[in-house]
Design goal:
Elements lengths: L1 E3 H5 L9 H10 L4 E6 L6 E11 L7 E6 L4 E6 L9 E5 L4 E2 L2 E2 L3 E3 L2 E3 L2 E2 L36 H5 L4 E5 L11 H12 L21 E4 L6 E9 L7 H9 L7 H13 L3 E5 L7 E5 L4 E4 L5 E4 L5 E4 L2 E5 L3 E2 L12 E7 L2 H11 L4 H8 L5 H16 L3 E3 L3 E4 L6 E6 H8 L5 H10 L5 E3 L2 E6 L10 H10 L22 H15 L3 E2 L5 E2 L1 H5 L21 E2 L4 H13 L5 E11 L2 E11 L1 E5 L4 E4 L2 H14 L7 E5 L7 E11 L2 E9 L1 H5 L7 E6 L22 E10 L4 H12 L3 E10 L8 E10 L8 H19 L2 E2 L1
Parallel strand pairs: 13-16, 28-31
Antiparallel strand pairs: 1-12, 2-12, 3-4, 3-6, 4-5, 6-11, 7-8, 9-10, 14-22, 14-23, 14-24, 15-22, 16-19, 17-18, 19-20, 20-21, 25-27, 26-27, 29-30, 31-32, 32-38, 33-34, 35-36, 36-37, 37-38, 39-41, 39-42, 40-41
């Protein structure tokens, strides 16, 4: 917020205070002063009149002048194209100090020059603060008849002698983006009186009206409008132009200037529509339009559904809260207008402004939030100024849609709680004085202090600790006692979840995978194509772009993006994993994503490699479970009937522990993989939160048997639909306690095998921990296994 000390002095008594004292007080109260700028600068300046002007004898663009400054006539050489006889000008005399250097007597191409005729740009006035028709854009400044030759107070009279404090404003203090709010704040800090103009109720005038106002958007809860049938376009008074200039706003004409000025004063954006552009006198706020619209800046913007528009007869007349329209702007021949003061949802205004790239003063104020009563205050002030400076007449009654959502309230605090919290012995008089300065109208009831919170502070003063903060902020921080924080001694260790995460990370890194950390925000497409979302995706209120609008509900798309990026950069083997939280409405969960592509390991020297496939991925996941205390017997791998959009239906599976679903793994469906221009990708996503309710067994080193084991292989033919997992269960149960392990090591279909059948080869390991097994010891369980396989599945040994 730019604070002009000239403007501030008209509202707050800052007499006797230097700029440095004001800055120091503001900083102590918690504000950051980002810049201190002098609006205009130059010493030894005087008003002069060019009484002679002729061309330089040795130049095609210089002029030789005689300039009367009242006390003497100076010979000055000037190169400005608008230099001419009879012109009143700003003269920097010899010895003057300007931002560009000191002025000295000199000879320019053989002609003496004793001074300089100045442009305002040469006096440190920024180009954007000059009126569009200012001669200083291309030449020297031309002064009007109100300036007398010999006058020295030039910059002050022009409104450019000012100091501007650029103060950082905070999200919870929208009151400080208005001059009135900042004046009240600085008055409280300095304990000086603050006198604001009286204008309450100024808009309570006007006869009957045909104007109607409506809103079809929930994001516009309050809208005030007023018809003014007669106004006169004229130049704004100097004081208003000076205040606008100090905030970097160009003065245009009285109507445009009043709307801008009231916004700077009250913090409430407002807009004036040319009355002729709305002949049927109806205004409706809509948020379902999909049109191209030309705004005041002459640029055409693509309006989408969700963007709020001000409309009349279903035609747009302005982009709500951001910028008016080219079709309703104030023109030089405007004779009547409609005033708009409305409240729009800050989040929606921010979204639209960001998407359109329109960061206007109005949008910035809406995005920070407004005083809930600011609409009426701004309308009152605008009506007062229109009557006084634009000869406004023919007012019609104010039309209101909705109402201001504000009820006066109080916040209570006790002196004992304040002192206990802050660690200082404040006296009741000190606390009451601070709250009085803040206009909180404190009431004391014993130890209790009741504060009446004004509407402009309703966004940040909610609880008693907020009152404590204000007291500390406006008293001297240096008076606070220095105390050491109380910290309970604890033993540092990892939480169970941290330990689990660390264990998984180490194992996967040791298995030659690389960990990635991805951006958690995704676009609409990734949100809609999410794998196993646990709920509704959360949309940001104000995303930086549509590509970062939603919190992701799965890790898959991010890892596939990583793969595509690496392949585009000539990587051949890409094996990644990510441990991250995902967010849905009312729920936060942590997931593990593992992606394999190409070779997991490769030795070019030995000409050996481990190519990524379904079994390699499954082995990694099973090993993770085993190291986390869930052995293979507790893990169930079943057919994928849940998601065949992301996964290949015949090369993927669902994973459960103790019959509780925990994830999915397998080959990415070729159609889905093609969206990322990749293929043959294997991916697993495990829901780590689901492991919390499962009891992990302690990891124990198995006791090695002193006796050798015996291995036997069998090959059986059975129907194609029989699952290998079912065979293993039957074999292990039929073999009894002597069976140490059962594994499938080959599946064959083709020549010599009847169609619809397959050959499955199984390795069975027998072991007795108490004695050495003989061949006859395992014949019985082995034959039992063959019998059970035949009984259940009609399996015949090859």
């Amino acid at each position: 917020m730019k604070v002009s000390l000239n403007w501030l002095s008209s509202l707050v008594d800052i007499s006797g205070l230097s700029v440095e004292q004001i800055i120091d007080s503001v900083i102590k109260a918690g504000f950051e002063v980002e810049e201190v700028a002098t609006l205009g600068y130059g010493t030894n300046l005087v008003v002069g009149k060019v009484i002679e002007c002729h061309d330089h004898p040795d130049s095609d663009h210089l002029h030789v002048t005689k300039t009367d400054i009242g006390t003497e006539v100076l010979d000055i050489v000037c190169g400005a194209p608008n230099c001419r006889e009879g012109l009143k000008v700003i003269v920097a005399q010899v010895g003057a100090k300007l931002m560009g250097g000191d002025i000295k007597a000199s000879k320019i191409r053989g002609v003496a020059s004793n001074g300089m005729l100045c442009s305002l740009l040469e006096l440190n006035v920024k180009k954007e603060m000059l009126p569009e028709n200012s001669p200083s854009h291309t030449g020297i400044e031309e002064l009007g008849d109100e300036f007398e030759v010999g006058e020295t107070d030039i910059l002050k009279k022009l409104g450019y002698e000012d100091t501007i404090l650029d103060l950082a404003t905070y999200a919870n203090r929208p009151d400080t983006i208005s001059m009135y709010g900042m004046a009240k704040e600085i008055a409280a800090i300095l304990d000086r009186p603050c006198k604001l103009p009286e204008f309450a109720g100024a808009a309570n005038i006007g006869g009957p009206t045909k104007l109607t106002v409506n809103s079809e958007s929930a994001n516009c809860p309050h809208f005030l409008a007023k018809v003014v049938n007669s106004v006169k376009i004229k130049e704004s008074p100097d004081w208003m132009k000076h205040h606008l200039i100090s905030n970097g706003v160009k003065a245009i004409n009285i109507l445009v200037d009043i709307s801008n000025y009231v916004m700077l004063e009250t913090g409430q954006p407002m807009h004036f529509y040319d009355l002729r552009s709305n002949p049927n006198l109806n205004i409706t706020v809509k948020d379902d339009m999909d049109v191209a619209y030309t705004a005041l800046d002459g640029v055409e913007y693509n309006i989408q559904k969700g963007d709020m528009m001000i409309t009349s007869d279903n035609q747009p007349i302005g982009i709500a809260g951001i910028m008016g329209g080219d079709n309703t702007k104030i023109l030089d021949d405007t004779t009547g207008l409609i005033i708009e003061c409305a409240l729009f949802d800050y989040a929606q205004i921010r979204r639209t402004a960001n998407r359109l790239g329109l960061q206007t003063e109005a949008a910035m104020r809406y995005a920070k939030g407004l005083d809930p009563l600011a609409q009426q205050k701004a309308l009152d002030r605008a009506v007062q100024l229109l009557i006084e400076y634009a000869d406004a007449t023919g007012f019609e009654e104010t039309v209101e849609y909705g109402k201001a959502n504000y009820e006066p309230y109080t916040v209570s605090e006790t002196l004992s709680h304040l002192n206990a919290l802050i660690g200082k012995e404040y006296k009741m008089e000190e606390v009451v004085d601070v709250l009085r300065r803040l206009d909180f109208k404190p009431e004391v009831n014993g130890d209790e202090i009741i504060s009446h919170i004004p509407s402009y502070r309703s966004t940040d003063i909610k609880i008693r600790e907020d009152i404590d903060e204000e007291v500390v902020r406006l008293t001297d921080f240096n008076d606070l006692k220095t105390t050491l924080p109380y910290m309970k001694a604890t033993v540092g260790k990892l939480t169970p979840r941290q330990a689990l995460r660390r264990r998984i990370e180490r194992m996967l890194v040791n298995a030659s995978l690389n960990e990635v950390v991805n951006y958690t925000l995704v676009d609409q497409k990734y949100k809609d194509e999410s794998l196993l979302p646990s709920g509704e995706a959360i949309a940001l209120l104000s995303p930086l772009s549509d590509a970062r609008k939603y919190l992701r509900t799965s890790l898959m798309n991010s890892l596939l993006e990583n793969l595509a990026y690496n392949l585009d950069h000539s990587a051949s083997d890409v094996n990644l994993f990510e441990l991250s939280k995902i967010y849905t409405e009312g729920k936060v969960e942590e997931r593990l994503g593992v992606l394999l592509y190409g070779n997991l390991e490769e030795s070019k020297l030995l000409h050996q490699s481990v190519k990524a496939d379904f079994y390699v991925l499954k082995g990694l996941i099973m090993e993770i479970f085993d190291r986390c205390g869930f052995d293979k017997a507790r893990v169930q791998v079943t057919e994928n009937t849940m998601d065949t959009v992301h996964y290949h239906p015949y090369q993927s599976c669902l994973v459960s522990i103790d019959r509780k679903f925990v994830g999915i793994l397998g080959k990415i469906h070729p159609t889905y993989a093609s969206k990322f221009k990749v293929k043959d990708v294997y991916y697993a996503e495990i829901m780590l939160d689901e492991l919390d309710g499962l009891k992990a067994a302690k990891i124990k080193a198995p006791v090695l048997s002193k006796y050798p084991s015996i291995s036997r292989d069998i090959s059986i033919i059975l129907k194609d639909e029989v699952k290998a997992e079912e065979l293993l269960k039957v074999a292990k149960k039929a073999g009894g306690q002597l069976v140490k392990s059962v594994e499938v090591f080959d599946v064959y279909k083709g020549e010599h095998i009847e169609k619809g059948y397959k050959s499955v080869s199984i390795s069975i390991v027998y072991e007795n921990k108490e004695k050495t097994l003989k061949v006859e010891d395992i014949d019985v369980p082995h034959n039992k296994i063959l019998e059970e396989l035949n009984k259940h599945y009609g399996a015949n040994q090859r």
